[in-house]
Amino acid sequence: KARRGGAAYHITEECERLFCETLRAVFLGEGNLARQDSLVTDMQKEIHNTTIKNDYGTPYIDRMMDSPSPEIVNVSEFGIEGMVTDWVQIWDYVGGNKFMGFVAENEGEKSMFVFFEQAVIGSDLKTALMGLLELCDIPYFSCSKLVACLDRKTDTRATDTLVKDLGWIGFQLTTLQEFTSGDEITSDRWLFMDMDV
C-alpha cells in the first residue's frame, strides 16, 4: 500500500511540475492558486506526518491525509474545482520514451493531455502514439480526444517536423477554448495539437 501511495504522489507531482501558469489556472482552478499548487500536497484537509516502513524495512516519513488512499481520492471532496480526473505516466519501452499526462473532464467529455518534452521530440514515436490512442479508448479513461502538448523550447526544426508528422495522422493545432468558456487561450510553454479518438 505504501508503494502504491508513493507512486500516486510521485506521478501527480511530476505532472504538475510540467504545468505552466496557463494550465494551472485552467485545469486546477483559478479560485485560489496559492492553495492549489498541488492536488496531493496542499489539500484542504488536515495532514499529519506518519512513519511508514518501505519494502526494505527502512522507515520514512510520509504525509498522510485523513481521507481514502490516494488512488481513490475524489478531489471534489476537498473543495478543489479543477477538471483533472486522473494523472498518468506512460513508458514506451520500444522508443525508449517516458510521457507524463493527465485526463481532464469538461461537460461529460474527457480529453487526455500528454506532455511531449524536449527529450521525446525527435525520437521514434510511432509505437507510443499507437499506445496512447489505445489508452484513450479503454473503458476506464474513455477519452474522446488526445491532446499532445509539444514543448515550445525545443529546436524549431524538430518541432516543425513533429507538427507536420502529427498533422499527417490527424492531429491539428488547437487552443484550450473548450475548457475556458470560449476563450482561445494558448500557453507560452506548450503548443497544443489534438485528435479525435
TrEMBL record:
Q: What Gene Ontology cellular component terms go with this record?
A: cytoplasm; nucleus
GO BP terms: namely: positive regulation of protein catabolic process; viral translational frameshifting
The source's domain of life comes to Eukaryota
Give one GO term, molecular function aspect. Answer: ornithine decarboxylase inhibitor activity
In terms of InterPro entries, this protein maps to: Acyl_CoA_acyltransferase, ODC_AZ, ODC_AZ_sf
Which Pfam families does the UniProt entry name for this protein?
ODC_AZ
| Quaternary structure (record) | Interacts with ODC and thereby sterically blocks ODC homodimerization.
Family, according to the entry, reads as follows: Belongs to the ODC antizyme family.
Q: What does this protein do?
A: Ornithine decarboxylase (ODC) antizyme protein that negatively regulates ODC activity and intracellular polyamine biosynthesis in response to increased intracellular polyamine levels. Binds to ODC monomers, inhibiting the assembly of the functional ODC homodimer, and targets the monomers for ubiquitin-independent proteolytic destruction by the 26S proteasome.
Xref: PANTHER family: ORNITHINE DECARBOXYLASE ANTIZYME
Protein name stated in the entry: Ornithine decarboxylase antizyme
Which organism's genome codes for this protein?
Lophiotrema nucula
